[in-house]
Amino acid sequence: MKNAAFKLAGVTLALSLAWGAQADALRIAADPVPHAEILNFIKKQDPKLDLQVVELTSGVNANELLANGDVDANYFQHLPYLKDQEKALGKTFAVAATVHIEPLGIYSHKHKDFKTLPDGATVAVPNNATNLSRSLFLLQSQGLIKLNAKFTDPATTLATPKDIVDNPKKLKILEIESPQIPRSLDDVDLAVINGNYALEAGLSPAKDALGLEKAEHNPYANILVTTPQLENDPRIKELAKDLASPQVAEFIRQHYNGSVIPVATPQS
């Protein structure tokens, strides 16, 4: 009976310890590529930081998860998108770290350059306000369209197709859900694709894009986001430190070959 009692007590203690460990886990919602891959690298580098990586699927709003307390932080978005989400959700979040840039790119399965683009060509772009505007600025930088002169700063002024004042090739802009755009490549002339979705689709932004955002002065760096209540949590501070480390920057540089660019500067 004593042995049975000790065994029962041991099982109870083990379950309690397991529950405690689970409660202390830092739950981070992240896109599979590259965000979850970077977090899983950190899990190996800093095992004392108990990370629980929650990979996002299409249609799941990671900011709603964070606002509802289902996760402790998320890592998938840039600041202009976050600001738009704060307005939409009526919530205030906190930026804990600025990590990397995924240059937005223009891709095609039908054309090798913009010179062969026919009049009336179709262009798939993201349908959310910030990335739609970002796409139009990218198309403008490639000389394909011209926006109203009042649109000077892509980080603070959101353009829409109605703001195009010059469209020499009469491009038809098709607004599509960002994760679905890679699947549209066979059906459109051009597709403007976020870096993470391009990587998931087997595209190499640095090699395959006909046009690519510049990394310099790019306002769309991806960030670690949490709530004001958790902003000073030691686990969040530790993860922010890890994400800004030279080791993570080197992992990004080696693993993504210029398709994902760390914000941290190279070590001499």
TrEMBL record:
Keywords noted in UniProt: Lipoprotein, Membrane, Palmitate, Signal
Family according to the record: Belongs to the nlpA lipoprotein family.
Signal peptide range in chain numbering: 1-23
Recorded GO CC terms: membrane
Membrane topology: Lipid-anchor
InterPro entries registered for this protein in UniProt: Lipoprotein_NlpA
Record-given protein name: Lipoprotein
Coiled-coil ranges (or none): none
Subcellular location: Membrane
